[in-house]
Amino acid sequence: MADRRGASSDSALVITRRDVLAAASVGLAMAPAFPAWAAAGGQLTWGIHVSLAPVWFEPAEASGIITPFMVFYALHDAMVKPMPGKALAPSLAESWSAAEDGRSYEFLLRDGAKFHNGDPVTAEDVKFSFERYRGTANELLKQRVAAVETPDARHIRFQLKEPWPDFLLFYATMTGAGW
Questions:
Q1: Residue 14 lies in a domain
Q2: Which range is least confidently modeled, 52-66, 69-83, 103-117, 162-176?
Q3: CATH number assigned to the domain comprising residue 132
């Protein structure tokens, strides 16, 4: 047997930093994708690209096509509105009720609701918005609503000419005057 003491190490494996980086890159590229879990809380920023018609900023002119609805949802609020898991959910109104005879609907505004400039949202503001509405459901709403009453700053009552079970569907959806 030969004596190996003092022998050169020509057969030693030499690994360079470049080899390590290349192997790591291949390993990462072939690794399975893992789901990324979002952190709880924070602020969601949502961006869309649309060409905006000036009328899309005006809920009183709701046309019934889908694209302006994205703008309405971002800029305006409704008394009540459809939400996931609920046919209608409170929004500006914290509650609402229908009379037993089906001829009136009353809404209670959420305490502390404010406009973008800090002014409080009042029952008179809701009445004004209803009266100036000219959108898709305008004719039907104006034919069936006899009066809009504001007993105080937070209560709005819609008196109907006759029972109308679909009032909330016409009033609360994006094409209705409730926006």
A1: no
A2: 52-66
A3: 3.90.76.10
131's tokens: 């009266």
Q: Which amino acid type is present at position 150?
A: T
pLDDT in tens, 31-50: 766 666 667 778 877 776 66
Write down the H helix ranges in the chain. 17-30, 67-75, 123-132, 138-144, 167-172
Q: Among residues 29, 53, 159, which one has the least CA distance to residue 167? A: 159
∠ CA 171-163-173 to the nearest 5 degrees? 15
Query: Looking at this protein, which amino acid is placed at residue 58?
Result: E
- On whether residue 89 sits in a domain, the answer given is yes
- Cβ-based neighbour number of residue 142 at 10 Å: 13
The alpha carbon of residue 43 and the mean position of all alpha carbons in its chain are separated, in whole angstroms, by: 13
Which residue range(s) make up the domain with 75? 54-172
Residue 129 belongs to a domain:
yes
